[in-house]
Amino acid sequence: MKCLWPEVPVGGPESPAVTQSKKIRLLIVDDHPVVRDGLAAMLSYQPDMEIVAQADTGLAAIDGFERQAPDITLMDLSLPGMSGVDAMLAIRRRNPKARIIVLTTFSGDIHALKALKAGAAGYLLKDASRAELLDTIRRVHRGDRCVPATVATAIAEHAGDEALTNREIEVLRHVAAGNSNKVVAHRLCVSEDTVKAHMRNILFKLCASDRTHAVTIATQRGFFAL
Question: Less Cβ crowding at N or C end of the chain, within 10 Å?
Answer without folding.
Answer: C
